[in-house]
Design brief:
Helix content is 72%, strand content 5%. It is mainly alpha-helical and 314 residues long.
Length: 314
């Protein structure tokens, strides 16, 4: 079976598996990778970019090499190749967990239990929950749903279409490393530099595709494109900017503004501010539905692109 068809069948099965099963409560492959990366960090950590680059190369390179080895081992059996691609896709995408956490916070807010919503928020993003009221929590959830649609779904599918199983696991490895060491704390400002920059590079195509599909699937296409064009470049993240701006325009809301991370206050630009309104509680569900639509559209685009390039190469 051709590699493009293996990806098409496997990625569809993996995304369906995520929809039906979600992430396992214990023994998730991404969590196993995270523990291994933390062990490597304990050995290598120095307050130096070079040692951080070595950490990135060892961890991400090992994930890609493992993906290549198991792909080679399964190559003689089309069924095994499809099953491997499906399992890898299921392991690296996280759309169902994203929706579950967002909706759980939404239910807590709907019940008026702001403390319960604050307790759940760290499962979704790195904001300081005690600094947020109910409206601030709702806005944080919508922003996190937007950004993680790219990081946890679309970006993985893009790299799976490009590189098969090694692309899938390599993208998730880099994204996980960025979450672990890529933030601008005193400990990781230098050591995490390589992981953060590599995550920016690998996240670039998925973020643009996410923004484009959010505009296509949203209720206000022109608003999404307008917000993307006007506001994305003002965001400090080169990839979160287009995604959050497009979601803001598509949903007709305002995102961004003053945020608190780890006790550090950040004054970010307002996204979608020209025509958007303040985020309301019901926008959490709207953002989740838009995220779902974007994920399935991304599967279609990635499969179509892979099949097209496969036919041209044959």
């Amino acid at each position: 079976m051709r590699a493009d068809r293996v990806f098409a069948y496997g990625a569809a099965a993996g995304l369906l598996g995520d929809l039906l099963l979600g992430d396992p409560r214990q023994g998730h492959p991404v969590a196993v990778f995270g523990r291994a990366a933390a062990a490597v960090e304990r050995v290598l950590w120095r307050d130096h970019r070079g040692w951080g680059a070595l950490h990135t190369a060892v961890c991400a390179g090992s994930a890609v090499a493992l993906g290549a080895l198991v792909t080679r081992a399964a190559r003689t059996s089309p069924a095994a190749s499809v099953a491997l691609t499906g399992a890898a896709t299921w392991a690296v995408v996280g759309g169902t967990s994203l929706a579950r956490e967002a909706r759980g916070i939404g239910r807590a807010l709907e019940a008026g239990d702001v403390e319960a919503a604050r307790a759940r928020l760290p499962h979704l993003c790195g904001r300081d929950p005690q600094a947020l009221d109910a409206d601030g929590i709702a806005r944080a959830v919508v922003e996190s749903v937007a950004e993680n649609t790219s990081d946890a779904v679309v970006g993985a599918l893009v790299w799976g279409a490009v590189g098969g199983v090694p692309g899938l696991v390599g993208f998730r490895a880099v994204n996980t490393l960025d979450a672990m060491v890529g933030h601008k704390s005193a400990k990781y400002r230098r050591y995490g530099w390589a992981s953060a920059r590599l995550d920016d590079v690998m996240g670039w195509p998925g973020a643009r595709l996410t923004a484009l599909l959010a505009a296509a699937a949203g209720s206000d296409r022109r608003g999404a494109l307008r917000a993307w064009r006007a506001d994305a470049a003002r965001h400090p993240s080169p990839n979160a900017g287009p995604v959050e701006a497009a979601f803001a325009g598509a949903l007709g809301v305002r995102l961004g503004g003053t945020l608190s991370y780890g006790g550090r206050i950040e004054h970010r630009p307002v996204l979608g501010g020209d025509a958007g309104r303040a985020v309301a509680l019901h926008d959490i569900e709207r953002a989740v539905r838009l995220s779902r639509q974007v994920g399935w559209l991304a599967l279609g685009v990635c499969v179509a692109g892979r099949l097209l390039t496969g036919r041209r190469a044959s």
